[in-house]
Amino acid sequence: MAEKFDAIVVGAGVSGLAAGYTMAKAGLNVVTIERGQYPGSKNVMGGVLYRHMMDEIIPDFWKEAPLERPIIEQRFWFMGRESAVQTGYKGMEWATPPYNNFTVFRGKFDQWLAKKYVEAGGLLINETVVEDCIVENGKVVGVRTDRPDGDLYADVVILADGVNSILARNLGFHQEWKPNQVALAVMEELKMPAEKIEERFNLNKGMGTTIEIFGDGTLGMVGTAFIYTNKEHISIGCGTLLSQLREKRIKPYELLEYVKQHPIVKPLIDGAEPCEYYAHLIPEGGYDSIPKLYGDGVMVAGDAAQFVNGIHREGSNLGMTSGRFAAETVIFAKKYGEYDERALSRYHDMLYDSYVIKDLKKYRNASHTMEANPDFFNHYIPASNMAMSEMFIVDGKSKYDRQKTAIERITEGRSKIGLVRDIFKVWRAMT
Ligand SMILES: Cc1cc2nc3c(=O)[nH]c(=O)nc-3n(C[C@H](O)[C@H](O)[C@H](O)COP(=O)(O)OP(=O)(O)OC[C@H]3O[C@@H](n4cnc5c(N)ncnc54)[C@H](O)[C@@H]3O)c2cc1C
Questions:
Q1: Which pLDDT does position 371 carry in this prediction?
Q2: Are 312 and 204 members of one domain?
Q3: Are 143 and 278 part of one and the same domain?
Q4: R_g (Cα) of the chain, nearest Å
Q5: Residue 147 lies in a domain
Q6: Is the distance from CB of 209 to CB of 203 less than 8 angstroms?
Q7: d(Cα 253, Cα 388) in Å, to the nearest integer?
Q8: Domain co-membership, 233 together with 253
Q9: Taken in order 425, 366, 174, 8, is the CA torsion positive or negative?
Q10: pLDDT tens figures, 291-332
Q11: Structural domain for 314, as ranges
């Protein structure tokens, strides 16, 4: 029989590596299997990485990890055809160590994290596809890979194989995701000298900003476009629910091209040289789509468990935390030599006690409410742009009359009660 490990991790993204590192550091015999050429080669992120959750796994990681820029400003644009209502927050408290979050390139970051994992004693096998879990008497006991003699055995298998998670589906933990449970996102990296980025985005040397764009950035579909600053690159992308792309028959790359040509966006990226293009799914089903999370000898973490908070564009942190919790569950289970469903239910309890499930629960109705009420993106955002434009025009019309017209723009074709009802729906979905 093949060598038996304490744990097998499927997928060397941030979730899998967080799990693998935590177990290897605790002295467990761990193998992580990645289908890509190297960790980071298949992973896509905008990408804002959150310091606190990574610090809980590798304290002070930010002193040595390959990071792009600390984020000191988060902007939100509610975009019309040729305009944007803008808001956001810039805080110099984020410009000093240990910082709040950073932009990263997953290609570099995941390789660094994988190196730490290997240094901690973990085994990494790249370019190997896990085809299925090996199940004996209802218990997951290992995995079958596409290599000759490629069966591996362990007390526990952690599935951190990303959004599609075919392995969890094969175990009956979830059905195939519906088109309104996943978003399709595309993004580009555009090269630009550091000084130019700082000049155009009004940034101090080395600091970064994020811009989240709603409304015309996704042609009124439920989703967002984004612009993030890296050291010498700008990441620009957009993502919308697959159901919406299908319904509107829009190709994602056409949408990205539209964003890049938008008169408010274009001056920021003008002259930048495209160097990488990515497309990837994002789990957007939220709380109500969370699959079965554990069974006899198996746990599911990260995107594979639908752990993405789309409202706050957080996924990597939920992935890292869930990977760590899964690892800590295995470390605890090893003390008693018990890995059945009851022993692994500790994972469920840790998740439900943490921000991971609490945040997903808080926004459980957000994207469904937006999808069911296309007016939020199609009407209210363009209307708020027209209203603002109206309020700022100075041509002798009285402010009273301007305000009246601005309100008419927003309520256009709606009763006052309808407006109040819509505000209430948003409030309910977000609180
Ligand atoms: C365009 C875009 C922008 C985003 N922006 C942000 C952001 O700014 N901030 C943020 O926090 N999150 C963001 N996210 C979400 C974030 O990228 C994910 O939540 C995060 O990558 C999840 O990590 P993971 O390790 O669970 O999955 P992944 O990173 O997808 O890793 C899964 C790994 O499993 C491997 N794998 C899959 N199947 C198998 C198999 N059968 N055998 C072996 N290996 C396998 C894959 O190759 C992959 O390496 C963004 C996502 C996209 C697409």
A1: 84
A2: no
A3: no
A4: 23
A5: yes
A6: yes
A7: 31
A8: yes
A9: negative
A10: 999 999 999 999 999 999 999 999 999 999 999 999 999 999
A11: 4-67+104-175+289-363
108 lies in the same domain as 169: yes
Nearest atom of ligand 1 to the alpha carbon of 237? 1
Q: pTM, whole model, 2 decimals?
A: 0.96
**pLDDT attached to residue 2:** 67
Q: Is residue 246 part of a domain?
A: yes
DSSP-derived secondary structure for 7-71: EEEE--SHHHHHHHHHHHHTT--EEEE-SSSSTTSS-----EEEHHHHHTTSTTGGGTS----BE
For residues 180-204, one letter each, b for 16 or more C-beta atoms within 10 angstroms of the residue's C-beta and e for the rest, the string is: bbbbbbbbbbbebebeebbebbebe
Residue among 351, 307, 347 nearest 174 (CA) = 307
DSSP label of 296: T
Residues 312 and 246 in one domain: no
Pairing of strands 84-90, 233-241: unpaired
- The band of 1, judged by pLDDT with boundaries at 50, 70 and 90, is low
CATH number of domain containing 325 = 3.50.50.60
**Number of domains into which the chain is organized:** 3
302 C-alpha to center of ligand 1: Å? Answer: 8
In the block, tokens 């304290």 appear at: 59
**What does each C-alpha distance from 214 to 80, 228, 308, 343, 422 come to in angstroms?**
9, 15, 18, 44, 17
| Residue 219 vs residues 186, 264, 293, 413: alpha-carbon distances, Å | 15, 14, 35, 21
Amino acid at 343: A
> Who lines ligand 1 at CB under 6 A?
10-16, 33-36, 42-48, 129-130, 160-162, 185, 187, 237, 239, 280, 282, 302-303, 308, 313-317, 319
Domain end among 283, 302, 333: 283
Pocket test for ligand 1, best of 44, 45, 67, 236 (most atoms within 8 A of CB): 45
pLDDT of 312: 92
